[in-house]
Design goal:
Length: about 120
């Protein structure tokens, strides 16, 4: 299957959207605990499942997960002032590992066949 420019654009958009959702999740997951952690993981789930649904392939999950992972890894690095956005506490680990688990779950989900009118009537 030859990738079309629209499909390539969709994957690039999913990578960028994954980076935005990852950065937003990093800022929210500890700020409003426990609601922020739940909100960040729900947004991550929506992103990954939406990427699969929009593209119709598991590559949609991979593209959005790649952007999400790059964002949280870059925000894990400590700054010269000693500030951290993702600390070494259990809430941060729950966000990182939970998001990775959600990516794996969405990537391995069984995709249902597209719903459309049947091609032929059975029994006639």
């Amino acid at each position: 299957m030859t990738p079309t420019p629209a499909r390539i654009g969709a994957y690039v958009f999913l990578v960028l959207l994954g980076a935005v959702v990852g950065a937003a999740g990093v800022l929210v997951h500890t700020a409003w605990f426990p609601g922020g952690l739940l909100l960040a993981l729900l947004a991550t789930t929506g992103l990954f499942y939406g990427g699969m649904y929009a593209t119709g392939t598991r590559s949609g999950v991979g593209a959005s997960a790649a952007g999400w992972l790059v964002a949280i890894v870059l925000l894990t690095v400590s700054r010269p002032e000693g500030d951290l956005l993702i600390g070494g506490d259990s809430v941060s680990y729950a966000y990182m590992l939970g998001g990775m688990a959600i990516a794996v779950i969405c990537a391995t989900m069984v995709q249902l066949p597209p719903q459309g009118p049947p091609g032929a009537r059975l029994g006639k």
